[in-house]
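Write out the 3D structure for:
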Amino acid sequence: MSEIDDIRSFIAVVETGGFGRAGKSLGLSKSIVSRRIARLEEDLGTRLLSRTTRGVAPTEAGIEFKARGERILADLVEAREAVAQQAGGVAGRLRLSMPLGFGIKHVAPVLAELASRHPKLELDVDASDRRVDLIGERFDAAIRLGTLKDSSLVARRIAPIYTSLLASPDYIARRGRPASPLDLAQYECLVHSGASSPDWLFRINQRWVPVRPSGRLRSDSGETLMQWAIAGHGIVALPNFMASEAIRSGALQHLLWEFPMPEQGLFVVRPPGAYVPGKVRVLIDLLVERFGGEPYWDDCQMAARQRGIDLTDPAGTRRLRQIAEGEHQPA
């Protein structure tokens, strides 16, 4: 398989722009990568790379060879997966990125089941709120929450994610409840500094209205913001899956039920291409199996469903608010 290794090394050099960086991504020394490229150029009888003081770049022949080499590697992966599936399972290494909070609480158990179902499958998981570069960092897939931006990546929507405005009973007792999203300017808000947009959106009279939250406490961690909210430091907007236990215990209570925030999504994204590797396909299938039914991680939606309340109807949100507030009244 030395020729395949040479092709893989060449592609890594082109994508990373250097022998050292390619070696690091492949787990090899710079000298080994350099020898492989030299052997490949000698076998082909042409230069594939132009070396400069700033790094390396593919020649015209190198650009053509990279495109064909990528197809060869993709065909090899597909052939291996086809044989592995006939032998009774998916094999190979799945490199996955997942968000920290949701990933640890909800995705990690699914991955444990995935490993049990497919004992020949290796899992390499990056649990972080960092937005990874799937192609540049060679990830097979990523689990992402929110609203996806346009890109060349292929996305599969798994389930809806809902967001609620929350505060502790202590904060509500001290400051009172806002009557409208426009009142939030008078309140201390806990701001997510890593959010894709600085505004909170609310549906008011069938229109989406942006409100800019402000406050002295900011963090790029939703878990941190939730702890600050529980401690009574202000109002926070959190995905329901993260706050479900705090909502259930009464540590946090809903605000502004009548003004829903936008529905977002749980997605699996993968690099472009019509072919879906078997290891990514079984991941998607299991995620759909686990998250495509009842939103067990979302107390708000479950409470509404159990009571037959339509949260798209303002009258329904008012009714659920009255129920929730009544449940948290002191005896």
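The radius of gyration is 25 Å.
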